[in-house]
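[job 4417] fold queue: 2 targets
>>> target A
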Amino acid sequence: MAKLRPARCYNKLERPYTRQSRYKKKGFVPGAPHSKITIYHMGDRTREFSHRVGLFSKDPIQIRDASLESARVASNRVLSSNLGKAYHFHIKVHPHHILRENPIAKGAGADRFQKGMKQAFGKTIGSAARVKKDQEIMYVGVDENGIEKAKMALDKAGKKLPCKFKLQVKKVST
């Protein structure tokens, strides 16, 4: 299996190219891969918490599903070990955007089986979440005594993401 290309190849937030065709069968991207992130809510979903700590993106960017999953695992580990079940962690973005690449063959004899840019729509290699500037990526609902632990967990999660981020603490009015 080929190596993953670096995040800089896909992190620009441009208009997604969608195939426009007269034939319905050719109008969608076939073979969308499964998302690596499976759980979006963790902790106690039933309780109302007094504070909400959010992680916001500072730039418009695409975040791959593997990056979101590693951020989720890192922050949930900190939260569950320090707060038990006294938190609600929620990931708000979903990786719906399909990433494609048109691999170019290199080496001897590559010209015999290479199509070049003739049919360059590309094969699906993953999925990404499209995030706008100042959009909330994830948040943690905690009581007042868990704010510092929630900040620490989201800071750890933000370091796994390919963008600059900011944390924001908000008191929830009930």
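>>> target B
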Amino acid sequence: MSVFESAHFDGHEQVVFCHDEATGLRAIIALHNTNRGPALGGCRMWNYANEDEAVTDALRLSRGMTYKNALADLPWGGGKSVILGDAKTDKTPAMMRAMGRMVDRLGGAYIVAEDVGTTPDDMTEVRKGTSHVKGVQGEGGDPSPATAYGVFAGLKASVKAKLGRDSLAGIRIAVQGLGNVGFELARLAREAGAVLTVSDINTSMLEKAERELGATVVAPDAIYDADVDVFAPCALGATLNAQTIPRLNASVVAGSANNQLATEADGEALRRRGVLYAPDYLINAGGVIHIFHEGPGYDRKAAFEHVGRIGAVLTDIYARAAADGVPTQAAADRLAEEKFQLGFSPRQAA
């Protein structure tokens, strides 16, 4: 498949295919837009079925980072990198160092960070090949807690907007996916008094949620039918589609997964059903905001206060969407496009 012919090609500035024979590295780096500054986005390692699938992921995720960084008022454009392979069996320190060298060849146009299948320790190895890296161990570290906190803040704002509730006490939440972010979101929600229903393919995490959070466990496919107020997709993308949306009982969708909508039409389908959708690239921006604050002078309190403002931005998006009669992701897109088309001014930074 030609990159230019992909349905997910959206005027991307650069797509780079990388190979290092010595380490077995096969990677793709996609730069979507750099109007606001160098493209920042994580490095995902996944056992893709084929190269086309990897290209699609890189194109979709890099575009999402452009919009995410713009709405977060950060001085970065959007990019993403993907490594083809099994992170549990194929990844080595030498491979991550080779990835750093590939990033370095772009001369600072791309800043890499961790993502699914990579860790702060991996970024420490990447740094041995390039200075254009964030999310390094010891300088703020794992951004997952910040991502979860941002989703939590956004979820609360969404419940307030849709249900008129200032508290999550008694609010029924279905969490799909109990990875680092999903489980932390579930924990925060439970501490706030929410009632949890959860699903995951990892039985040990389900047992932990049941034991520590009092969660009700359901089969992965049954999570869509749960009788809840909020559906929180925290696994992989495209789980909101023509097959699953009619099954939802929730009146709010607010979760951490990237690319939750299978198609743009699915946002309109949610709106027509009266479901308030928190645009994914906004509600899950806590991680990238955290990365903005990291470094030798990292201040956790300041970083998390910044992340917490995601709720206020979502409230603004909901008001714009209602005023214009459009799906919430369309309102978010319009605001993000205004920001990244204009470029970045230091006065915009929070």
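[job 4417] complete. Note on B: Residues 144-285+311-334 form a domain with the Rossmann fold fold (CATH 3.40.50.720).
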